[in-house]
Amino acid sequence: SMKALNFSYTVGDIYLAGMFDVHKRSLSPFTCGDIKTLHGFLLLEAFHYAIEQVNSKQGQFKDILRG
Fold first, then answer.
1. Is 43 helix (H, G, I), strand (E, B) or coil?
2. Is residue 67 pLDDT above 60, yes or no?
3. Helix/strand/coil (H/E/C) assignment for every residue in the chain
4. What is the domain extent for residue 67?
5. How far is residue 17's CA from residue 5's CA, in Å, rounded to a whole number?
6. Higher-scoring residue by pLDDT: 62, 37
7. Which DSSP state fits 54?
8. Where along the sequence do coiled-coil regions lie (predicted)?
C-alpha cells in the first residue's frame, strides 16, 4: 500500500518548489516536533501569498497559472 505524504501543493502550468523547515526537531527519530511559527510556517504562508499575488495579476504570464 502507498503511504500518504503531507505537503503543500497547488495545481498549475508552471511549478515552483520551496522547501521550508516547518517543524522543530523532535526528541524521537522520524517524528516531527512542534511547528516553527516564526521561521517555518510563516515563510511557507508568505510563499503561498506571493504565488497567489502573481497569479491574480495580469502581465507577462497572462493565462498561465503558477502553482
1. helix
2. no
3. CCCCCCCCCCCCCECCCCCCCCECCCCCCCCCCCECHHHHHHHHHHHHHHHHHHHHCCCCCCCCCEC
4. 11-67
5. 16
6. 37
7. H
8. none
Considering the entire predicted model, what is its pTM?
0.59
Q: Which amino acid is at 31?
A: T
Take residue 40 and report the three cell numbers written for it. Answer: 517555518
Amino acid in position 4: A
Bridge partners of 66, per DSSP, are 14
Total domain count, the chain = 1
* DSSP one-letter code for 48: H
| Grid cell digits, residue 1 | 500500500
Q: Could you report the per-residue pLDDT of 6-50, keeping only the tens digit for each?
A: 666 667 777 777 888 888 888 888 888 888 888 888 888 888 898
Asked whether residue 51 is assigned to any structural domain, the reply reads yes
How many residues can be counted in the chain? 67
